[in-house]
Design goal:
Layout (H helix, E strand, L loop, with lengths): L1 H13 L1 H4 L7 H7 L11 E5 L5 H9 L5 E5 L3 H13 L1 H5 L4 E4 L12 E6 L8 H14 E12 L2 H8 L2 H21 E7 L6 E7 L10
Parallel strand pairs: 1-2, 1-4, 2-3, 4-5
Antiparallel strand pairs: 5-7, 6-7
Helix pairs in contact: 3-4, 7-9, 8-9
Length: about 220
């Protein structure tokens, strides 16, 4: 696990825009992200986006049942290699390797055959341009089944603080980011988890696709 932390920090320094954190998610944050999955009765399709070194992935594989399907989309090839090694070398990962697959590509290029019951995202949305975040949310909901759940996290108060003390361009970007995300939260959020034991502390947002597949983000 120390090796994972070292690699995560290295990627943070080299690719801040797509890594966005200096350390993997804590076990407490990972547990909060997979919370809606814990009472599931399969078979289910699960997608993890931006799994990094696999902190959340570890919680997912512990919950998978024999008929479930697990896909991971990771744009960072160094992280994808770590994940592949975990599926090959770690016992619990090995047990579900036959029902799991890592896809090294941007989410927008991922084209699965079926939609998902659960999507778990570790993407650093606060680092992205508003246009990209809007595109990602459209893809998230395109990939969700009716009643499917999207769970993602963001660090507490980061946007609020940066909107007050950041440079003008960043303040404007974050304001537009709020305008993109807020309608989805208003229309679809059913739970917000607070996780203080993480670096830094984080919120987990849980959103659910309506059973008729509609978005209602106007």
């Amino acid at each position: 696990m120390i090796k994972h932390h070292v690699q995560f920090f290295r990627q943070f320094r080299e690719r801040f825009e797509t890594t966005g954190a200096i350390a993997p998610s804590s076990g407490f944050l990972a547990s909060a992200i997979v919370g809606p999955m814990k009472a599931h009765s399969g078979p289910l399709r699960v997608l993890e986006v931006g799994p990094g070194t696999g902190a959340v992935t570890k919680k997912v594989v512990e919950l998978l049942k024999p008929d479930d399907r697990f896909d991971l989309v990771e744009i960072n090839d160094s992280f994808a290699e770590i994940l592949q090694n975990r599926f090959e070398q770690e016992h619990r990962f090995q047990q579900v390797a036959h029902q799991s697959q890592i896809h090294v590509c941007p989410l927008q290029e991922f084209d699965p055959e079926e939609r998902y019951d659960y999507i778990l995202s570790g993407l650093p949305l606060n680092n992205f341009p508003p246009e990209l975040v809007s595109e990602l949310f459209e893809v998230f909901f395109d990939l969700l089944k009716p009643n499917g759940v999207l769970s993602y996290f963001e660090y507490m108060y980061i946007r609020s603080i940066k909107k007050r003390i950041g440079q003008a361009a960043d303040r404007n970007r974050l304001k537009k980011l709020d305008e993109v995300i807020h309608p989805y939260l208003e229309a679809h959020r059913f739970r917000k988890s607070w996780v203080f034991v993480n670096l830094p502390p984080a919120w987990v947002q849980h959103l659910q696709m309506k059973d008729d597949g509609s978005l209602n983000t106007d």
